[in-house]
Design a protein that fits this description.
It is a single chain. The protein is an alpha+beta fold and 94 residues long. Helices cover 31% and strands 34% of the residues. A five-stranded antiparallel β-sheet has the order 3-2-1-4-5, with helices on one face. The longest helix is centred in the C-terminal third of the chain and has 18 residues.
Length: 94
């Protein structure tokens, strides 16, 4: 299984971009999505951008990946990472 990681483009070149993920720079192949401007969020699989995504979607994915890391480390305090789901659940409980 491959997990897509949201990354923000901070530099561009022909067929590649330098992206940031948690403060770490990665050189990413952009041939599948074409050249994109600085500031664009992309979903990256195995060092290749596969999809341009909206910043809101990127933040939801980042939160889900952070929750996964916490649970794998034994920390079950993850509700704050899913405010949209928690608020929807409270509406259903009423």
């Amino acid at each position: 299984m491959c997990i897509g990681v949201p990354m923000k483009i901070i530099e561009t070149g022909f067929g590649f971009a330098v992206c940031d993920s948690k403060g770490v720079r990665h050189e990413i192949d952009t041939m599948l999505i074409g050249d994109q401007p600085v500031g664009t969020w992309v979903l990256v699989f195995i060092n290749a951008a596969r999809q341009v995504i909206e910043p809101e979607e990127a933040m939801r994915i980042v939160s889900a990946l952070e929750a996964l890391e916490k649970v794998m480390a034994g920390d079950n305090e993850i509700d704050h990472l899913f405010p949209d789901l928690i608020s929807a659940n409270k509406i259903c409980d009423v």
